[in-house]
Amino acid sequence: MKHLLVGNKVIYKALRRYEGPLWKSSRFFGWKLFWVVLEHGVLSWYRKQPDAVRNTYRQGCKHLTQAVCTVKPTDSCLFSIRCFDDTVHGFRVPKNSLQQSREKWLEAIEEHSAYSTHYCSQDQVTDEEEEDAVSPMDLKESLKRAQTCQQRLDREIYNFLKMIKECDVAKDMLPSFLQKAEVVSEASRETCVALSDCLHLLTKQEGVRNFKLEQEQEKNKILSEALETLATEHHELERSLVEGSPPVSILSEDEFYDALSGSESEGSLTCLEAVTAHSFEESKAPVSSGKHRMSEGKDCGGGDALSNGIKKHRTSLPSPMFSRNDFSIWSILRKCIGMELSKITMPVIFNEPLSFLQRLTEYMEHTYLIHKASSFSDPVERMQCVAAFAVSAVASQWERTGKPFNPLLGETYELVRDDLGFRLISEQVSHHPPISAFHAEGLNNDFIFHGSIYPKLKFWGKSVEAEPKGTITLELLEHNEAYTWTNPTCCVHNIIVGKLWIEQYGNVEIINHKTGDKCVLNFKPCGLFGKELHKVEGYIQDKSKKKLCALYGKWTECLYSVDPATFDAYKKNDKKNTEEKKNSKQTSSSEESDEMPVPDSESVFIIPGSVLLWRIAPRPPNSAQMYNFTSFAMVLNEVDKEMESVIPKTDCRLRPDIRAMENGEIDQASEEKKRLEEKQRAARKNRSKSEEDWKTRWFHQGPNPYNGAQDWIYSGSYWDRNYFNLPDIY
């Protein structure tokens, strides 16, 4: 429409379907004849033409986005297609095909490639553009009103001229006046004609828009079906590799195609949703190996262990979690192809009854490690405890596949634990992008722990990756030391099909800004066969990069320290044994499995001379029915009359949607979640109209005093309990 209004000529050409027989090259089976179809920018191949007519038994497909064709001058039938993912597919036109030449196929492929490339390179619409966009119904009503006004103006001009000509007074009027009236009338008539032409063009344009919308809907359908098929095939291949049985694809080509074309993999989406929904069954309790050392004699969550004069905390939620068997994440994500992942609204059934601010508070579950670090005089021992605390901060995420509620702008959360010796305040300081700031301090003024987290999400097809942007700072006040680090990347696998599972990977660099000591921890990705599943390894180095200590363990279980020479010798011997066990099977190192791997052993092999730094506390017996919460997480949303009278009205314990879900009222939780999101959207729109900026209450933006990175700093005064002029966000 913009091109139309500025006078550019716009040609809308319907994309034609093109099909016919082609020989296709295969790495293992040579050349084989297929019926190939070009439709909506997608190249698909079938065994027979009737299969293409019924759209069944499709053997494969490729989207032609940025596809490039190459030919050989010496062979008039051969051509190849290089796709956007650098895969090359060879085709040959049958010599007995008189009606279809290579040139016609190349012309059709170029046309469909241009179509697919154009629509895959369109810019995403921003929130502001979405709010300013005109709906088709509004445009239709506007056209009707314009047509009515044009007809009325035409009538009024006609009646005006008729009245002047019939009036006797017109004879006595000056000729110049009558001439001017005729000029105005003629100009008005020309305006009516121009307006009528414009309305005709806009009406015609609306028809073109509707046609393009139908094309986009069809393309979306093809994309989602292709991704579903690819994910199912990939999942079956991974399972066969992990279990040790040969993949069906290497048995025979016919058996392979029959397997993919059967009712189990070629059926409707309902079949896929049933498989995906099964992945949400959380019947397996977390494994605990050996004896778990408790947090220096303290139970990190209350219950009977905290009955010695300290407030007892609850040991379960008011209602167990709902079954997710009838729901599928893929059924939601397939409708959101092309959208920014952070803006996808998920049904409440995929949530857990905690806000992300409360999820952040789980960093403090093993606060005893900070107290222990403060008690040591040796900086290396302090770094060991800080490293153990950094690893323990992500331990509660294991098997927690429920999504925490997104905090509303201005939402807060506080937690005071006298038994663990800390208090914490957090605030949602930004909504786009979503940034959560927190500040914790020891009740004995021995430490300060603060930071801000911006979880950057990426959707990789079969997995969702969350990279926690932001700096975390720990200050040990008694030693005048500050440590900074960032958390590892978290990834949830098997979003489409298979059992959901979580891994953490990436390097975590902990820096002591006073001594220059550094601890570099490597959270290892699991790899194809799961040998490195959950493993964490690293070294503590001084400022001259001399290794002072080695650390190893699993972030789901424990962390040990050992002499670096002993650790290096063990690693060298372990690598040698691994190479000897390798068989003739070779797998590509560029592709890793999404299937949940089985580790070599359930516990960490303890190297002689090692010292235990941290071991996770066992989860409660009812954890599987309570969203896989730890004992610490179980009490985060607990509230009583005394607490309710003290906390501010922005505290997420008072959020009605989280409270309803915790109480088992899933329908009410869904309604409240929708109401709060609409209220927040309306408030943001009002601020935009009034050009008013949001002002945070308890944090302000500024540089981190130790590494200079942009951060959110606690402003103070929260614990004075003067909560006036707080926003009404619930």
UniProtKB/TrEMBL annotation:
Coiled-coil intervals: 213-240
Keywords: Coiled coil, Lipid transport, Lipid-binding, Transport
Superkingdom: Eukaryota
A molecular function (GO) term: cholesterol binding
Compositional bias of kind Basic and acidic residues: 670-681
Keyword Plastid (UniProt): no
Domain PH: 15-114
One annotated Gene Ontology cellular component of this protein: plasma membrane
Gene Ontology BP terms: lipid transport
Protein name according to UniProt: Oxysterol-binding protein
Organism (species): Cricetulus griseus (Chinese hamster)
Lineage: Eukaryota, Metazoa, Chordata, Craniata, Vertebrata
Family stated for the protein in its record: Belongs to the OSBP family.
Disordered, as annotated region: 283-307, 575-601, 661-693
